[in-house]
Task: inverse folding
């Protein structure tokens, strides 16, 4: 492993330990409620960026994967009593499968058509779930999760630590992908598919891999959701704001590296959490929309791009 | 120079109703230096696209070392040892110069020390000083060198240079020729598509000329350039420029 690898691993370890210790310092459970959502968006942004950032395929359907993960775990728990870690694995498998399906159907089309097709995925999934009585239809499903284990201070603290572990796993995966032959191949695909192929890169397979991994991570972000809210229903599980945030956060942070979506998610989700208590949640979408337009127009390479540019200009 | 490395028979490619290429029969012998000339739009790049799998021919077959590769995807052909440059450079933007070379080194197996190999090739094409630069910062000229470096870094058996010298100075043309020569000495078969006649004449053991998708002449450089049809379609056109 490289020096950067050790530093990263150590940092992740410290973050996980801090997450476990935090409930002993912060007594107000609200921080963990809010922290859960912020971390959930770190996972979503990171998952989205594997396909959207590394490979350059803009997926408007993140909410479809998130919702599928949420419904998978709610159903598996209610029907079979499968615990969260089990449904987390199931959600990953379903997300990967959905990603592959989406890839097979849409990867041959490019650019804006791919984006439109992914939007269709959300509508299809939401409609299907609306019409399955076993999944609660439009009314949704109540999920009475088991009490948290003894070491946890309470349900929100427990869910927070769980999402932290998922976030650390997702970010580690995204980092590995970026730095390995996979990421290099995807960047080559993004720059020029023909040149990538002629350099020996199996572009279709690599893109399908990115679809599957991205889908798995997005679904993993949704898996704990029913246990967090004790309830799932189609409108919130497939919410517009999830799909919008999934795109906005990496764009704000920067799509070229694993740090970008993390920074974007931390900034935007924290702002949203503060805004939700101080203003209203409807203004959230408006806010994200405005920020997104601003970044696309003024800083297409995100905050990391802005900082890098400043750096190069200073050196010149 | 006995068995063909590449062998095309009856290769045809149309775009809509317009037939850009063929039918073409053409062999490239192992370790041969083949020059391809012909006016713009003659179908030279289309031929290369059919050889490398960027395009599928509508009919006909392409063989590499005896095996039919007509249906193989591009990346497999690259891994077999068929390499090319693009007429319009296709750098991997968002990557440094050296990382551009690491792409083929990651995916075309067989090179032990990848970073050393990349450095060695950059040295050879004169891009060492640019190794860490983002590829988008390169000049048009440097992009051509990068294109060539990326094509040869994976030790191909066949290298196809599609107008790799366009826009280069005489000294740089000599440099590129020297690189292609030394590759050829190591056993690589080279196809050079070029408008720069003196380079083609010096380099090629055999020259073929294309016009409107057809192979209209084949022979030594001298024979082909003296061919009256070639004179008419090619040098006639060139004279107008
Ligand atoms: N992808 C394509 N779609 C439509 N027409 C094409 C395409 N590629 C090449 N052509 C046409 O095919 C003909 C041959 O082009 P090309 O092979 O690039 O010629 P050359 O390389 O000899 O200059 C030209 O008329 C060109 O316009
Ligand atoms: Mg051409």
Result:
């Amino acid at each position: 492993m490289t020096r950067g690898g050790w530093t990263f691993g150590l940092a992740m370890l410290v973050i996980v330990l801090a997450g476990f210790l935090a409930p002993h310092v912060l007594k107000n459970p609200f921080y963990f409620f809010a922290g859960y959502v912020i971390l959930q968006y770190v996972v979503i942004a990171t998952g989205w960026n594997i396909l959207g950032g590394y490979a350059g395929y803009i997926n408007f359907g993140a909410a479809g994967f998130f919702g599928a993960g949420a419904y998978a775990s709610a159903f598996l728990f209610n029907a079979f009593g499968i615990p969260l870690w089990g449904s987390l694995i199931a959600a990953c498998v379903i997300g990967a499968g959905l990603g592959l399906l989406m890839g097979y159907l849409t990867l041959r089309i490019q650019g804006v058509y791919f984006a439109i097709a992914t939007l269709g995925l959300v509508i299809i999934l939401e409609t299907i779930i609306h019409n399955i009585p076993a999944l609660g239809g439009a009314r949704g499903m109540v999920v009475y999760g088991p009490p948290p284990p003894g070491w946890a201070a309470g349900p929100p603290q427990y869910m927070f630590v769980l999402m932290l572990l998922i976030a650390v796993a997702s970010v580690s995966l995204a980092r590995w992908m970026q730095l390995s032959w996979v990421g290099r191949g995807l960047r080559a695909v993004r720059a020029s598919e023909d040149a990538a192929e002629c350099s020996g890169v199996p572009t279709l397979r690599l893109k399908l891999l990115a679809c599957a991994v991205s889908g798995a991570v997005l679904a993993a972000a949704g898996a704990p959701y029913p246990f967090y809210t004790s309830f799932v229903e189609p409108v919130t599980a497939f919410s517009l704001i999830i799909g919008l945030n999934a795109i906005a956060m990496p764009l704000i942070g920067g799509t070229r590296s694993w740090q970008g979506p993390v920074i974007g998610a931390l900034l935007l989700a924290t702002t949203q959490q503060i805004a939700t208590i101080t203003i209203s949640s409807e203004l959230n979408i408006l806010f994200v929309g405005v920020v997104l337009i601003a970044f696309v127009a003024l800083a297409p390479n995100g905050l990391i791009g802005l900082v890098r540019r400043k750096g190069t200009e200073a050196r010149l | 120079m006995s068995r063909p490395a590449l062998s095309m028979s009856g290769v045809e490619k149309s775009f809509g109703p317009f037939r850009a290429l063929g039918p073409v029969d053409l062999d490239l012998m192992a370790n041969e230096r083949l020059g391809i000339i012909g006016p713009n739009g003659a179908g030279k790049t289309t031929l290369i696209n059919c050889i490398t799998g960027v395009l599928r021919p509508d009919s006909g077959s392409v063989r590499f070392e005896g095996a039919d590769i007509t249906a193989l995807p591009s990346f497999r052909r690259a891994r077999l040892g068929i390499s090319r440059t693009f007429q319009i450079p296709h750098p991997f933007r968002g990557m440094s110069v050296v990382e551009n070379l690491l792409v083929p080194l990651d995916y075309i197996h067989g090179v032990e020390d990848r970073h050393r190999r990349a450095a060695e090739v950059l040295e050879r094409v004169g891009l060492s000083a640019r190794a860490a630069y983002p590829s988008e910062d390169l000049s048009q000229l440097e992009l051509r060198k990068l294109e060539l470096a990326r094509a040869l870094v994976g030790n191909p058996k066949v290298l196809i240079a599609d107008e790799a010298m366009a826009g280069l100075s005489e000294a740089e043309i000599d440099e590129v020729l020297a690189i292609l020569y030394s590759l050829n000495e190591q056993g690589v078969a080279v196809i050079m598509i070029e408008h720069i006649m003196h380079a083609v004449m010096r380099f090629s053991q055999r020259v073929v000329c294309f016009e409107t998708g057809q192979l209209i002449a084949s022979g030594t450089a001298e024979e082909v350039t003296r061919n009256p049809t070639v004179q008419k379609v090619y040098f006639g056109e060139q004279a107008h420029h």
